[in-house]
Each structure stands twice: as C-alpha cells, then as structure tokens.
C-alpha cells in the first residue's frame, strides 16, 4: 500500500543504475525491491530479525548469519544486515532512506545523526511519515491502538510525523539540511473486513493494545472502527496522504 510513496521518492531522486542506496528500518524490503529493480545497489538495515528474513525471501536472497545476500551474476548487489549501521558503513552511499512511517523519532535520531556526520557531503537522506491526521482515514482506526494500550502507558500509534514540521525538525535535529518535500496519496484497500483487521494488526502498531487487553478485543474494536470505510461491495478503502522530506548531508 506504500508503493506510491516509494515510487515517488525513487522517481524524485532519479534512482537507477549506479545508485548506491542504504535503507534504515528497511522492514520486509519492498522499497529495496523497487530500487533494485531499477538497477540500484541496495543495502538494508533493520533491528527485527523476522522482518529481515521476510525481506530475504522477497528479494530472493540466500540465508546467512550475516544477512548478506549473494547477488546473481550481473545483478546489482543486495545486502541485508541486522542492527544499525556503524559510522564506517555509512560512507559511499548516494542515498539514505528512512521510509518506515511507524519508526519512532527517538529510534531514528542516533542513526540520522551518524549519517549526517559520516556520509558524503551533499548526499540525500529521505524521511517519510504520515500526513496530517485529517488527511489520513487510517488515523481514526489507529487511535483504537492508543486507547486500548493506555493502561500500559503507550504513547499512541502515531508517535511522530503527523505534524506540519515534524520531518523538518527530525532532520534538523540530526544535523541534516532540508531540501524539498512531497505528499503522496496511499489508499489502504482490503477485500473485506477480516482482511483489513488482519492487515492492520500485522503492522505491529496494535501490539501494545493486544498486550494490554487481548487479541479478540482488539480485533472487535478495529472492526467497529472500520465501519465508515466499508463500501457497498464489502471492500474496505481508507484514503491516506503520506509525506516525505528530502534532506542533505
């Protein structure tokens, strides 16, 4: 569902053969797959071992303890690594991305600061996140997670990137220079209510809510929150706007 966001960023930065891209919080690797298909050499880091294994499967990589893929002959190299990059590993990239809208700002700041210090001057860094809540239908459904998780002291499902200047403040705080931005429509669509509930829970944004209550309660309340977005044929559609910021080292 975030393909329009990823495609817009790759188009805007002219990603293609010869591009060396490093992705922070690469998740299951969809953005890396799109960049690799354009001929870019890509490296993805994530702290979640299970998500990296899914990325390996998606990118056709071979399992290994280092999460380094063995590229096919004549194909651009694809590397997946567990953890966060060290300063020495940040050199030589044309583009660094942090496109996971759910990544908390506190988790991104250290890595972005390291990029600002170690990456090549002038190289691009792209951050992405949710647009304004009034432009994101899914925000009303995600509030269920915050409400149910409140007994555990959760801060809410949209901890960052929903304010007008949040991306700029995150970049500036890391020592990066903002250099352009964009908004992209990313509707969330599901064939039915059950698929929508499964898909939303799979984002991980409801984990604290499930821990504070139980899965059955969370599923029930998500289903109720989805009623306004159910169409006559039973499908679910939630229109959202996502935002990205281009910054420079």
From TrEMBL:
<dbReference type="InterPro" id="IPR029063">
    <property type="entry name" value="SAM-dependent_MTases_sf"/>
</dbReference>
<keyword id="KW-0489">Methyltransferase</keyword>
<dbReference type="GO" id="GO:0032259">
    <property type="term" value="P:methylation"/>
</dbReference>
<dbReference type="GO" id="GO:0008168">
    <property type="term" value="F:methyltransferase activity"/>
</dbReference>
<protein>
    <submittedName>
        <fullName>SAM-dependent methyltransferase</fullName>
    </submittedName>
</protein>
<keyword id="KW-0808">Transferase</keyword>
């Amino acid at each position: 569902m975030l393909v329009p966001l990823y495609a817009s960023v790759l188009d805007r930065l002219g990603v293609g053969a010869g591009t060396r891209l490093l992705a922070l919080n690469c998740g299951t690797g969809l953005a890396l797959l799109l960049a690799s298909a354009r001929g870019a050499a890509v490296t993805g880091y994530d702290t979640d071992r299970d998500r990296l294994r899914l990325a390996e499967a998606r990118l056709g990589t071979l399992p290994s303890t280092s999460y380094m893929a063995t590229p096919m002959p004549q194909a651009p190299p694809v590397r997946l690594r567990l953890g966060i990059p060290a300063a020495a590993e940040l050199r030589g990239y044309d583009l660094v991305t942090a496109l996971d809208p759910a990544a908390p700002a506190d988790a991104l700041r250290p890595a972005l600061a390291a990029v600002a210090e170690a990456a090549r001057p002038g190289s691009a860094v792209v951050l992405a996140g949710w647009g304004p809540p009034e432009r994101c239908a899914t925000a009303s459904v995600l509030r269920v997670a915050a409400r149910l998780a409140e007994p555990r002291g959760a801060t809410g499902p949209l901890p960052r990137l929903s304010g007008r200047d949040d991306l700029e403040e995150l970049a500036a705080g890391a020592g990066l220079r903002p250099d352009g931005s964009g908004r992209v429509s990313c509707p969330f669509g599901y064939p039915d209510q059950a698929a929508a509930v499964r898909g939303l829970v799979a984002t991980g944004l409801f984990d604290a809510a499930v821990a504070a209550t139980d899965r059955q309660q969370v599923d029930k309340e998500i289903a109720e929150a989805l009623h306004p977005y159910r169409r006559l044929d039973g499908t679910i559609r939630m229109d959202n706007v996502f935002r990205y910021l281009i910054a420079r080292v």
